[in-house]
Fold this protein.
Amino acid sequence: MLSDHHIKDKEAKQEHLQMTDEPKLGMTPALPSSKTADNNRGKISGCTLADIRKRPGVMLLVNTNTGYMDMTLNLLESVKRTGVCVNTTIVAEEEKAYQTMLSHAHGDPAIKVVKTDQGLGEADPGKLVLFNREHMRLVNRRHRYILSLLEKGYEVFFTDVDTFWFRDPFSYFQGKFDMAFVDERSPYPTRLRRKSLHCPSLGYFWPTNRTLQFVRKWIQILVDPKNQISDQGVLNRMMHANIPVHVVVRQLPVKYFPHALVFYNPDWRQENKDPIIMYNMGIKGHDAKAEKFKENNMWLINNTSGTG
């Protein structure tokens, strides 16, 4: 069992290209990749195998479907422009999304595309509206993917695909803690005991004993048919009541990790000129999110349809 001092399991030292040899919790392995020379740069990541070996034991994780493939590519392009090189796993929720993303990522040493074995069917971008049934089914799978990697000893940085990177965030994930989130209510760096509203759309997870216990319980509650609360609601209720254990949470400042409702405010932007990552929480639907990116010169790819 992993200790709470961030001692990694030996599996965390495995190369990323072997990450899914033993898939867990619904993930099935991608097709075998051809051997990549250390100095070959990936088309999506801009990174070489030598580059990603400099950040061992860390995994950037996203999940996507047909409706949000273009948003996923836009996210990855923004990461590329920061110069960050990190092992990245993309979980595709449908066969079409899997084949398309696999084609885009072919030969990229930093990108691994896997698919869930519980597909949602082909999704219409217009149907993935915030908190509707299809959206909730997609969202509530990410915790199992996070746990699968934590159990292998990885530090996991999960982010929704409708995020945009401006700078390298990893200096904020150093030190001793279990998880890191943005709290939409807390005055940074204070953690509120009963009124916090941490957002799981962007979270960093260390593979500690406490983190593993917490994520397993999170999943258990979410899969209960009687549960009617969002994953964010469950997350915060568990933290408020220390269920099943008290976890050490690193607060991420809204100043550097803003959500859309503050980021797109001109007055806020005037006062906060150096964001690190923004996430489009609060903007409903694929097309509205894409339009906001385009209005702010943050749409970096050619196609504008998630199904293209």
